[in-house]
Design a protein that fits this description.
It contains 16 helices and 7 strands.
Length: about 400
């Protein structure tokens, strides 16, 4: 009868003479002249010797080595070549993930760096919606033909969405390459690759946010003010401040100074990742005072959803659709810009700063180190006056 579990941790540490030492049950410890120690499984099948390495004793504990040896011995007793059994186990461990699995792993790993919940949801929804045809495909088998097939239906019709989908697929496939699951060029790369396979976008096909002509804004605001919902107040406030959706729905009372008539949006919620102070017109202040609790907590949301928590990033757009207005929330920023450029004498750089756009000219950025708050206050007051001067 063969004894098992002959070795122990103390004895293993003391072994220095080059040799092969049995633990029993086919498990051996090999000590080399160099002093290195490694585990072996040695067995016989159909008269043939099978010797299988189980790893260094520095990396594989005695308990783990015994577990591996037991698995191989079980396979051998079942008439299975332990060497083949070992290869199958290794193959399962090294299985190539599907594109969907790779996407989930990557998004789980990077979503902590997203600036808001909207980006987290968008990443997942664009992949599940537009890349459904490759979700279950092994990530190393995704080809340029696959990418073209899923992008072609939206490439011109939904240009901005298609561009984001392509970029996200490219990043997922880059991640697969880094993990060793793919080799070769990225089939989702645009330059020198997909640009030759997809329809060329003409200048007229560039995607834009639908904007309302500024002459119609005042009458629209009358209809908007007649609606009592918080979403309507959020949209009204967004129009009056020319702010982005994410900036408004994430707004908290600690960001508002009613005495100074300012709203300071923190850097993490700004597209340019810089804090932005918005001067508040009287019309904007009326909205805030109407919503302000008697004793608001600093972290409380200004525009809280009907079921608590933040409004959906689609709530204001859904309201516009219910009002049968074919524009987007972001489009009102274009409306503001058109009005300011055509109907006022305010400087272009002040208009761009009101929109929280980065000033492109390095010279202008160096010259204008302030935020032109008082000039922008005059601009936003004039915009509010225009928005509330209804003809009907």
């Amino acid at each position: 009868m063969h004894l098992r579990n002959k070795l122990n941790v103390k004895r293993i540490a003391a072994l220095t003479t080059p040799n092969v030492y049995s633990d029993g049950g086919g498990l051996y410890l090999r000590v080399r002249k160099s002093g290195t120690k490694s585990w072996l499984y040695i067995g016989m099948l159909n008269g043939k010797r099978r010797e299988i390495g189980l790893g260094s004793a520095l990396d594989v504990s005695l308990a783990d080595a015994r577990k591996k040896a037991t698995d191989l011995r079980t396979a051998q007793l079942a008439g299975i070549d332990p060497a083949e059994a070992r290869k199958q186990v290794h193959a399962v461990a090294q299985r190539i993930p599907t594109f969907g699995e790779m996407a989930t792993n990557l998004i789980d790993g990077i979503e902590g760096g997203f600036s808001n919940e909207k980006h987290r949801k968008q990443w997942r929804s664009t992949i599940t919606t537009y890349a459904a045809s490759i979700i279950d495909k092994p990530v190393d088998q995704v080809t340029a033909t696959d990418i073209v097939a899923l992008l072609q239906p939206i490439w011109l019709e939904k240009a901005e969405t298609a561009s984001r989908v392509r970029q996200r697929i490219e990043r997922i496939l880059d991640g697969a390459t880094v993990k060793g699951h793919r080799t070769g060029d990225n089939p989702a790369r645009l330059k020198g690759n997909l640009e030759f396979l997809l329809p060329r976008k003409t200048k007229g096909e560039t995607s834009h946010h639908e904007a309302m002509p500024f002459a119609l804004v005042a009458d629209f605001m009358v209809k908007l003010r007649s609606r009592p919902a918080v979403t309507a107040r959020a949209l009204e406030f967004a129009i009056l401040t020319a702010a982005r959706t994410g900036e408004v729905i994430g707004m908290r009372w600690e960001e508002v100074d009613l005495d100074q008539a300012t709203w300071t949006v923190p850097a993490q919620r700004m597209k340019a990742k810089r804090a932005h102070t918005v001067p508040l017109s009287d019309a904007a202040l009326i909205i805030l005072r109407g919503l302000r609790p008697a004793e608001p907590e600093p972290r409380d949301l200004v525009f809280e959803g009907p079921k608590g928590g933040m409004l959906s990033n689609m709530a204001m757009l859904a309201l516009l659709k219910r009002m049968e207005v074919n524009v987007t929330v972001h489009g009102f920023r274009s409306t503001f810009r058109d009005w300011a450029g055509d109907m006022t004498n305010f400087a272009q750089q002040d208009i761009e700063m009101a929109l929280a756009h980065t000033i492109q000219s390095k010279t202008e950025r160096a010259y204008r180190r302030g935020d032109a708050l008082e000039k922008r206050r005059e601009l936003m007051r004039a915009w509010a006056d225009f928005c509330t001067a209804a003809k009907c």
